[in-house]
Amino acid sequence: QGGGISIYQNYDSIKLQDLSIESCTSDWNGGGIYSLGSSLEMNNVSLVNNTANQFGGGIRFDDDNSDSRTLSINNSIIESNSSGNGGGIFLVSGNTTINNTQIKSNVAEEHGGGIYSEPFSSPSIRISGSIINANTAGSTGGGLSLTDYGSTTIRRSIITNNQSGSWGAGIYVNHEINLSNSVISGNSGGRGVSFHSDHNHRIVNTIFNDNASGNIMMDVYTQENQIQFEFNNMKDGHGVSFSENNTGEISISNDNFIFDPLFINPEAGDYHLLPDSRMIDAGHPDSLDSDGTRSD
User: Global pTM?
Assistant: First the structure.
């Protein structure tokens, strides 16, 4: 367990800083890092070209059912790692925050090229200011595969050019998600985002653009809650598809947009808006940018 670093129960808290873990291998879990039952903080850490045969090419983090352990990843790079599930990151319960981090070019043979949350656990995941790009999954969730239980919040992040063999090229959603002020673009295989669970999902101030198979897939069998979709842009039209077994609905308000968002240079990975973009100051009126103006 843990080709590069193994951390076991009740070490609080471990801090890794200004560190590179490269080309490590585990026959089972955590090619770069395996962490079980301890809190872990990572600052300016590079996990590159690590391999786990089963779970978590870059890192496997397991709260060990305590519901109190935390994983914090800041200003880091998780790149070109591979595994059976969770090419970059594999999460089992706990509270995870990911800030200003690049998760790119990771590969999972099955689920979660960039990030995979294990079924039957209940992780709390918060992602902000991060890039999830060019990850690949043989099955669900090229960028992220969010399964069964738990919740995920994604803010001001870019999820682009990921590929899946099945559902959810950008994000496979099977637990509660709150997605805001982000870009879902250039993903292929499955739809940009696919929904498979009945929760109070909310998508706001987000741009869906050039996802090869379409923007959104609904595959919800029973539904009591709402999927709210407000102040988003889908350049190619609403682009919502429904599976044969779907009975769910998505509540798309009249405040969504259908036009070219005018990115500066998406081919080079620059998804900032040009000065004449109609998306500027067009977000939800209750959300503000750091300069105090209405959110883009």
Answer: 0.95
